[in-house]
Design brief:
210 residues; mainly beta; Thaumatin; seven-stranded antiparallel β-sheet; 3 helices; globular; Thaumatin-like protein; Osmotin/thaumatin-like_sf; disulfide bond
């Protein structure tokens, strides 16, 4: 079972009250305004009684109601009808990884470029090969893989301070680890040119947790 977390960007609603539970094999349709912006993430190892999740927790509740998830967690980000009327979407590992996740458009019109209307994803379970210094351990084993920013909180790893610049903030060995295993996902903050998808004329988006 996965508990889904949903957080709208400022000024945008938190769909489904911010979350719901999904059993294995179960599907759910979520309706969003045509210009919605926000993030969606999986929460794992959730206790139905305490409502606490070991990864991606948003404050011990099923419906996050505006609260974000505690990293590390795999993340889907989307902006509907953004600049030039294009949808922008991606799977991000900038906050780390907890389970494989994918997102793709249905009925979109591609412009033929590499990142137009394609499937954004992290299909590999990084918990199996996560570097030892990035592992999030529990009695269940390795349940998540931290990003270098989350693990070390340095300006260089987090692309902040003097490194808050695409020319200065470069992919670390840890970001390269994420990218090598999940090439269609963001691995660090300035990975836009190799992870951000765009599309237009989309009927709906499919998101799957694996």
């Amino acid at each position: 079972m996965v508990w889904v977390g949903i957080q709208g960007n400022p000024g945008h609603p938190h769909l489904e009250g911010g979350g719901f539970a999904l059993n294995k094999g179960q599907t759910k349709t979520v309706k969003a305004p045509g210009n919605w912006q926000g993030r969606i993430w999986p929460r794992t190892w959730c206790d139905p009684k305490t409502k606490h999740c070991l990864t991606g927790d948003c404050g011990n509740k099923l419906q996050c109601n505006g609260a974000g998830g505690v990293p590390p967690a795999t993340l889907a980000e989307i902006t509907l009808k953004g600049a030039h009327g294009l949808d922008n979407y991606d799977i991000s590992l900038v906050d780390g990884f907890n389970i494989p996740m994918a997102m793709w458009p249905v009925g979109g019109k591609s412009d033929g470029t590499k990142y137009s209307c394609k499937r954004a994803s992290c299909d590999n379970n990084l918990n199996f090969s996560c570097p030892s210094n990035l592992r999030m351990n529990s009695k269940h084993g390795v349940i998540a893989c931290k990003s270098a920013c989350l693990a070390y909180n340095t300006d260089a790893y987090c692309c902040k301070g003097i490194y808050n610049d695409s020319k200065k903030c470069k992919a670390s060995q840890y970001a390269n680890y994420f990218k090598s295993h999940c090439p269609m996902a963001y691995s660090y903050a300035y990975n836009d040119d190799k992870a951000l998808m765009t599309c237009t004329g989309v009927q709906k988006y499919m998101i799957t947790f694996m």
